[in-house]
Amino acid sequence: MEQDLVMIEATIAAPRERVWQALTDPRELDGWLTLELDAPFKVGEMSTGTVYPIDEPMPWRSFTEVMEPPRQLVYRTPMVRIGEEITDDTSWLTTDTQLEPSGKDTYVRVIVTGLANAPIEERDTIVDDITGSWKYLLSELKAQVEE
Predict the structure, then answer these.
(1) Cα-Cα-Cα-Cα dihedral of 46, 50, 52, 53, to 10°?
(2) Which family is this sequence assigned to (predicted)?
(3) HSE-up of 89 (CA within 13 Å, CB side)?
(4) Class level of CATH domain 5-145
(5) 44 conformational bin, left if phi > 0, alpha if psi -120 to 50, beta if neither
(6) 14, 41, 55, 79: which could join 91 in a potential S-S bond, CB 3.0 to 4.6 Å?
(7) Domain ranges of the chain
(8) For the whole model, what pTM was predicted?
(9) How far apart are CA 128 and CA 124, in angstroms?
């Protein structure tokens, strides 16, 4: 059976509006996602910027599909290697981040879909990378908003 999604969940001890701000405000993204956006996310538009992982900077490209403050952010990222162009044949990963109030806390659910479109020989590595990355990123988000 093909794995097409990864789901990561966390509870953050902060109000949903605060978590939403950290999730969508370009000034705050650099703190937990190490992402510098060229402009804020906007539904129906491509976002560009630079993400700074541990090794070297990489270009960021995403297409924002849904922004329902402070509840849901959905965007797609192309499955291309650095330097590859986006074409009509490009496969995309969709990241759906959902925020739900849980008392004074916020329950965060991140669902990444589209993994079945990844090359079969790379799929397990991609799933592991996405799972590990989002676990780490949610811990960073949590540390930032719980300060």
Answers:
(1) 40
(2) Belongs to the AHA1 family.
(3) 2
(4) alpha beta
(5) left
(6) 79
(7) 5-145
(8) 0.92
(9) 6
Of residues 46, 88, 48, 91, the one with CA closest to residue 65:
46
Q: Tell me the residue type at 134.
A: W
The position carrying tokens 């976002």 is 47
Q: Which two tokens mark 91?
A: 């496969």
Instruction: Output the 3-class SS for 13-47.
Output: CCCHHHHHHHHHCHHHHHHHCCEEECCCCCCCCEE
